[in-house]
Amino acid sequence: MTRHLALEGVDNFRDFGDYGAAGGRRLKRGLLYRSASHGRATPADLAAIDALGLAVIVDLRRQSERLRDPSLRHSSFTAVVIDNDLGEDESDSWHDHIRASDLSAASFRAYLMDYYRAAPFKARHLDLYARYFRALAAAEGPVLIHCAAGKDRTGILAALTHHLAGVHAADIVADYLLTNRPEGLIRRMPTVAAAIQEVAGRAPGEDALRTALGVEAAYLEAAFEAIEEAFGGADAYLEQALGVDDELRARLRARLLE
Predict the structure, then answer these.
(1) Could you tell me the domains of the chain?
(2) Quick check: pTM over 0.85?
(3) Are the C-beta atoms of residues 50 and 143 closer than 8 Å to each other?
């Protein structure tokens, strides 16, 4: 299966369905999509995205990110968009890191480990993740989740979706690591290097840039370990923090699994 949709201006766009699940069932294809932001989408990209028939888009970015890089839409766009402006009084941790760090690979890795440990509990993410699961159960069509790069906030939410659906642990990690597709990293490197240069006044080396752009299994493990410590496991987190009770879980599985 070719998961990635080859687009000109939208990175990391892929289907994260079509995985085996517990009980011999399988996650459906063509219902779950994830990507980076759509602010640089070309007309051809917008037509390709429109052809998917998306019913809901969950934009996990902060308000400042959405204003800086507004999403482009096809003329026939009708999907429901879920976003929020919670936490806008907080500092931008990514920019804070860039300004303060030595821009080494180790510094980016340490930042991302800390980010993943905290991300599942941020008020912004709790609201968006909870609304996503409710919308996913009710939507009459595919759902797309995205953030700026489509790897961290999006990666955690995709992994939680997989966990809920009973996708095998190895496949959850394998899907998460698809963000590291070499051609995608190479294409994004100049843009991200320029953005870091603008904030920090200097650019990171290639190894550091690859670390900043990529993902590692340890990051996702850190998020789930933090969830385990706080709630006793992902199932309890889904129920207590996101409101995914037995009834909603059953509806989600009925919709997502075949």
Answers:
(1) 14-249 (3.90.190.10)
(2) yes
(3) no
